[in-house]
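Consider the tokenized backbone below.
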């Protein structure tokens, strides 16, 4: 028997508050008086060296609070909303944009129009300075080249209903898969997305706990292809595994380019230091470091292309067709409400849908 709507809502609320409370307990209570507190959703191996370099240069101590693999950036977003009346965080470094729109709607972010933001294109920043994007990654199809030819026609054919058991995708309630679903919801409409979601799973699409798991399944040959991000793809490529990638294109045209974002938290007691850090993160130097890291993140600001790795130059061309994510807040909210309910009470139907295949995302 499915739980009632009221039970689902109550359970969802308890779950989110539980995440926030658990994360609160993980925060260091004895924060040094002059320490700048940074909540960071970006992978520690890439973000921590940059934050420590800022600390070394400025002498400003930085206390970093990372998210967890289980909750992705959503856990930190809920924590920031939970702490709104008594903020502990000064700067939030998020690894995607839509969560910043949620924080902006909850009045958690303090506008700061930094001089460094001038180098960032308008579609990757809030005009009033609530948040600014930098150093992006792309949604891509990862393909096992020992099993498939990596071309658009082959990928399109895989998304037919009789071949979906060769594909993998991360659960869409978190991270960049939620961004992906929000784009599809806006382009297709929520009803069509819900039908696609149901039918692909009923036909055998593998749903796993994260983009890294998608990468592993494809790289090891358990699946022929999947949806992941460029940084995860490069982990497999650098390991010498038989993989290739193709950009995800919405309606055959626009790519899904997901920037890191940084924002000043309203109520911060260290505003000047926080602004210094934001300027540092939005600098050409930081974007170049992230471009040259193993994640090959894509600079969004103007930068000499000759200084970039060849792979990043290719990604930058794809990113020029990026979908404008700033318009997606309503679609994101619809997706979060639907998917929260879906994963609490959904069980696949025993009756398969009529033949005809599913559209490629």
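A designed sequence for it:
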């Amino acid at each position: 028997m499915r739980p009632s709507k009221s039970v689902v809502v109550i359970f969802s609320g308890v779950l989110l508050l539980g995440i926030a409370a658990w994360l609160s307990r993980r925060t260091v209570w004895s924060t040094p008086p002059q320490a700048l507190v940074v909540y960071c959703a970006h992978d520690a191996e890439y973000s921590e060296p940059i934050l420590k370099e800022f600390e070394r240069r400025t002498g400003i101590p930085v206390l970093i609070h990372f998210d967890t693999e289980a909750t992705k950036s959503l856990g930190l977003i809920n924590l920031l909303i939970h702490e709104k009346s008594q903020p502990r965080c000064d700067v939030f470094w998020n690894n995607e944009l839509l969560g910043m729109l949620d924080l902006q709607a909850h009045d958690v972010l303090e506008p700061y129009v930094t001089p460094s933001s001038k180098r960032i294109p308008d579609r990757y920043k809030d005009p009033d300075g609530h948040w600014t994007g930098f150093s992006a990654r792309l949604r891509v199809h990862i393909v096992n080249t020992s099993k498939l030819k990596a071309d658009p026609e082959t990928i399109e054919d895989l998304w037919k209903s009789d071949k979906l058991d060769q594909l993998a995708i991360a659960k869409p309630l978190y991270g960049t898969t939620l961004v992906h679903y929000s784009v599809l919801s806006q382009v297709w409409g929520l009803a069509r997305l819900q039908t696609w979601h149901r039918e692909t799973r009923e036909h055998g699409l593998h749903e796993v706990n994260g983009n890294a798991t998608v990468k592993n399944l494809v790289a090891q040959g358990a699946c022929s292809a999947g949806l992941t991000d460029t940084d995860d793809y490069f982990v497999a490529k650098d390991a010498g595994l038989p993989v290739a990638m193709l950009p995800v294109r919405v309606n055959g045209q626009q790519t899904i380019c997901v920037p890191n974002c940084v924002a000043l938290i309203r109520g911060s007691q260290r505003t000047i230091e926080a602004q210094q850090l934001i300027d540092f993160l939005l600098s050409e130097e930081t974007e170049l470091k992230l471009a040259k890291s193993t994640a090959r993140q894509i600079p969004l600001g103007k930068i000499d292309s000759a200084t970039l790795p060849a792979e990043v130059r290719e990604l930058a061309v794809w990113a020029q067709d990026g979908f404008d994510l700033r318009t997606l807040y309503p679609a994101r909210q619809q997706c979060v409400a639907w998917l929260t309910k879906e994963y609490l009470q959904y069980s696949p139907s025993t009756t398969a849908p009529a033949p005809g295949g599913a559209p490629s995302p």
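Confidence is low (pLDDT under 50) at residues 1-30, 346-356.
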